[in-house]
Amino acid sequence: MDCRQKIQIEALLAAKTRSSLNDVLSRTVAELGFDYFSLYFQLPLPITRPAAIHLHNYPEGWMDHYWQCNYGDVDPTIVHTRGSVIPVVWRDTLSRQSELFWQDAYDHGLRAGLAQVSYGPGGNYGVLNLASADRYLNDNELHLQAFRFSWLAQASIQSMTNILRLDMLSNPSNRLTVREIEVLRWTADGKTAGEVGSIMEISERTVNFHVGNSLVKLDANNKTSAVIKAAMLGLL
Questions:
Q1: Rounded-to-integer distance, Cα 139 and Cα 145, Å
Q2: What pTM does this model have?
Q3: CB 159 within 8 A of CB 15
C-alpha cells in the first residue's frame, strides 16, 4: 500500500458523520480519476425489507429519478453484487432487462463505472460504485484497479458502520452495559433466558431485565432484533 492509499483510508475511517464521509469519498474518487461515487449501505434489519442508506455525489436529478422509477429493486450493479464479490464494469451488466436503466443513467451523465460489493460487521452489506461522465472503462483497467477498489469499498463500509455505532453511543443512556452485552451474546447462541441465567449465575428475571434494557437502548422490537442490531454495530 502506497502513502496516498494510506492517507485515503485514514481519512475515510476518521469520518464522524455521513456528510463528512460523503465529502471524503467525493475527494477520493476524484483522486482516482472518477467523477462520481455511490455508496449503497444496507442494514440487515428489518429482515423483510432491510433499511438502506445511500451516499452519493451523482448528477442532480438522477437519484430522484432513480427512486421514482423504483430502480433500487432492479439496479444491475446491486443485482450483480448480491451474487458475487468480484468487481464488475457496468457495461458487463447490460442486458435486455437493464437496457432502460442504463439508458436513463447515460442520459443523466453517468456513462461508465465500476461496482464492488463489501460486507461489514454483523451482516452489513454495501455496494460502492465509481462512475465517470466520459471515460471508457475496460477489463484491463478493472484488473489494474481491482485491489485499490476493493480496499476503498471495505474502508467505506467500515466507516459507515463506525458512524452508525457512534450515533447510537453518543448518548450515554444508549450504551450497553457489560452485563447486557453478555446476555445478548448468550442469546445470540440460542440460549433461553433460563439457560443464560444458569450460565451467568443470575436469575431468569434478571436476564429478562437486561434484555428489556437492551431493547430500549437499541430501539429493537424483540430480543432477536436486538441481537442482530448489536452484532451489526459490532457490539458483540
A1: 10
A2: 0.76
A3: yes
